[in-house]
Amino acid sequence: MLFEAIAQGYDLFASPFVFALIIVGLMFGLIVGALPGLGPLMGIVLILPVAINLQPITAMSLLLGIYVGGSCGGSISAILLRIPGTPLAAATLFDGYPMAQKGRAADAVGLAVSSSALGGLFGGVILILFAPVLAVFARKFSPPEFTLLAITGLVAIASVSGESFLKGILSGAFGLLLATIGTDQISMGYRFTFDSYHMLDGFHLVSIVVGLFAISEMVFQFMGKDLTDKPDIPLVRPQFRSVLLALKHWKNLLRSSAIGTFFGILPGAGGVVSSFAAYAVAKNAAKPHERYGEGEEGGVVATESANNATCGGALVPSLALGIPGDPIAALLIATLLIFGFYPGPTLFEDQPQIVGGIFLVYLTSNVALLVLGILMTPLFVYVLRIRKSRLIPVILVLCVVGTFALQSSIFDLWAMLGFGLVGIVLRIANYPLAPIVIGTILGPLLENNLRRSLLLSDEGYWIFVDRPVSLVLIVVNTGLILWVAYSTWQKYKASRKSA
Amino acid sequence: MNSFKLVTAAAIFAAALAVNPTVQAADFPDRPVQTIFPWGPGTAMAADQIIADAVSKELGVAVTLVSTPGAGGTKAFRTAMARKADGYTMISGWVAPLVSAPASGKADWTYKDFIPLHSGVAAAFAIATRVGDDRFGSFEEMMEYGKANPGKLRYSSGAAGNLPHKVMAKALQAYGVVAQVVPYKTDGEARKDLQSGVIDFVFVNPGAYIADKDGFEIGLVLSELPAVKKLFDGAQNVEDVDIDIGLTGLGPLGWTWWIVHKDTPADKVAVLQNAMKKAMNDESVKAKLSAIGWTPLEWDHTQYDEIIGSVSTQISSMGDGLIWEEEQIKKLRNK
Fold first, then answer.
1. Which of residues 167-186 of B touch A (CB under 8 A)?
2. Cα(B299)–Cα(B311) distance, integer angstroms
3. Residues in A touching B181 (Cβ below 8 Å)
């Protein structure tokens, strides 16, 4: 039936205008993704008024292009500037930036683009082959399972904390605390809002990420000695060998894409969690000579393939059930509604040509990302040739514009600056910043689903044991925690021996 | 012309602009107008985007939606009210922050603190159960079970304390059923958990119902209006089962009325009202809104006080359903 849908959708899809808009969407997506603050969600919001005046599949080609390009674009600034353009790329800087520092910026960007495209294609194939089946599978995940998945994600903090395990845990706890600010979802009571309406929904995640990473990084760059030096970086050419470089890590690529698709299918989990989870798994599965966190190719492959595979995954519940996998998918659903199409089982039955057209657009967007991204790599890397005295003010202005554009809020700018100061202090004290992002995202997922589970249960915490999937996740989490404890103990012993 | 004359002419022109509202209005708007939208992306945003697009065509400038979710929609209102009242900020005044939040003491404004532009859309609610749930033969049987087993049924309206929650609590109070509400961030998540079997019934709007008719069994349509009953394929409504939820007309429905800050200059308000009226009377706009399950409303600003006043009175008096539910659940926990 799905192949019939694709055949029917081909007529809507096969038009030069659709191809042209995929390219426009991808380029726009790469730009909004790379600019700190803006991201694919904001890009789609900006373009939506234009898109709804186009034909349905033409509009979806523009929007899906932004979705796919924007989900990859954040990695470019993460690799080149140590600033994740979007929270999605927060994990990419672990190895992407060190690669660039070692003179492999073009390789890192090419690898990120290739992994994103291949991960996205993986998610797309899964979407086409199994959308209705996976939508049913996603229904098996309810509050108890989401609670345990959030715990799995928090265990990932241990994996991304580098040498300072305890400091990583403290940073993660800080993120969890930040997540408690705002309106409590269960009681609708206000927490730590200090009578300010700006705080009613807590701090915007983008203010936190841009402040922690971008502002602090710019301050450190400003304090450097090479402010006015012209960087001696040779021009690079487009290199399609980065596809081979990504394929060299095929196991990691497949595993991370599968993780990304899995998290995409589950409404509410999202690309940030998937990229951190994929990174954590890749790091733990690494061979002894692979040094994650120091410019390892596998780190970039894991995070970028996972967060783009999440896009395909997120389209599964969105198209098959009408339940958005993430806020961007919610906007895509809203767009389809504006055109009079109801995402859900009815869409598959009544308008298979629309489903087929969307599948084709999504797959083509990923193939086009591969070509376009690699062709544009020299342009991106050119940023590194700009003097810091010119680059820093431009980036700061972009941070301000990007963060303000989210809600047209001056408060968000103050929050961004505040988190910039926090970022500076934490970096001086050698605290990792990424766990703060994980904590902030997973905090609400953990707290609200735990409380929901207890409301659903007649027998208190036994609900976590009574449900088969939940029980499996308890076993997995227990294993992961024991593994982390064991490897930390081993590292501790090794460090004592060498001392 | 020497510089003194130039400055004088400019000053006179500026003064003329300041005192002559028609000149000002003729220039208004000369840049994009923002509409503060109180929810995240979803079906309500789709409806407001259709309206924004139509108003944009009338005004000749972009009308953008700024999604400002938080605190049951009140963050959006506070954000909009903190802005300059220059006509460049409109508010999509959904019933929850406009009427329901003030009624429950969560906001310090009333609907009279805003200037109406035009009514937007409305959507009805229905209580839906899971298809294939063979524990009960009918919705009435489920209610009988709920009455005999207080606290055993689980339901969700999406966010806690929202309008669907209030209407559902009122209906359950009328049945004498104490059920445990389970809040979710979005109603989509609640519908997913209905399908997965962890909750027993949810609210659905026509859009969600049309998207998956085979996935829901409509138990009770929460409106007495025949047009609403038709949207749910003739399922039983509150009149059929003879329960009184104390809400009629717009009272039990979700709706929006586009509004602006009360200090907005009258000439600019007139421009916006005119544009909205034209947009909402456009047959193609109405057709688009109807196609996605929303009912376009045709009331203009002159009917705001009459319509909202009546709804406000109803909503203010229906908070007792939530209080009753909370008290009954507390009693059960303390047993």
1. 180-186
2. 14
3. 455
